Amino acid sequence: MEHDDDHTSGQESSPPGRGSGTPGQTGRESGRDGSLDLRTSSAATIGWVAIGAAAVVAILIVLQVPATAAVSMLGLPAFIAVLAWTCYLRPRATLRPDGVLVINIVRTYDVPFARIVDIDRRLGVTLETDSGKKIGVWALPNSGRRARREGLSRGVVEEHTPSEIERLEAAQRVWLQADSPAGTGGSGEVITEVRALPIALCALTAVWALWGLGFSAAL
Questions:
Q1: Chain centroid to CA 185
Q2: Confidence (pTM)
Q3: How would DSSP label each residue in 56-93?
Q4: Structural Rg of the chain based on CA atoms
Q5: What is the pLDDT of residues 148-160, one digit of tens each?
Q6: Residue 138: CA atoms inside 13 Å, Cβ hemisphere, count?
Q7: Which long-range contacts (CB under 8 A, 24 or more apart) does 52-59 make?
Q8: pLDDT by residue (tens digit) across 46-65?
């Protein structure tokens, strides 16, 4: 979930400097600049499975229901697909050479590494900037514990850091080593933007789905 102390879109000022370096070789490359998209594999799986199921339902409706009724009944699978995209496929953290682009459900944050002073992993992943602003990263998992079996019966619970979080921390370390030993280099602003499209699509398809359910009940 997002935990953002600033509920308005806008920009933050930042100290002067510069950023360089590359975030590593693991992850899914999303751009020619070597950027990497990070999200949990379970989120991608849930999102695509839900969209696939919605597509199957939509095909069955088109094949088996008269055209006049099918138009209204397609609202439910459309709503499921849009909700899956909004909650599971859209959120991501894109690592770039000088920072991370955090894409949550509604807000996006362009955060230079020069502005990040702490990565809090206690309740999900939260980036804390040098101005005290806290930015929740919806797409990254919680750190926690996992059980590991030793021998035939004995189990050991150990600390576990998901690979997505390790990549984020490694990318910041690479930037710090390449740019400035003191970690004070890097220019840029923390830019916050509000994206209304996901909520608008969810609202429109929800109305469409309710209309279809009402139409079906009236048959």
A1: 27
A2: 0.72
A3: HHHHHHHHHS-HHHHHHHTHHHHHHHHHHIIIIIS-EE
A4: 22
A5: 555 555 555 556 6
A6: 21
A7: 53/80, 54/78, 54/80, 54/81, 54/84, 55/81
A8: 999 999 999 999 999 999 98
Q: Counting runs of H as helices and runs of E as strands, what totals does the chain give?
A: 5, 12
Paired residues of 126 in beta bridges: 120, 136
How far apart, in whole angstroms, are the C-alpha atoms of residue 70 and residue 4? 41
Distance, in Å, from the CA atom of 165 to the CA atom of 40, rounded to the nearest integer, reads 10
- Taking a C-beta distance cutoff of 8 angstroms, is the pair 89, 12 a contact? no
> In whole angstroms, what separates CA 1 from the centre of its chain?
10
Q: Residue 171's CB: how many other CB atoms inside 10 A?
A: 25
Q: How far apart are CA 70 and CA 66, in angstroms?
A: 6
Q: How many residues does the chain have?
A: 219
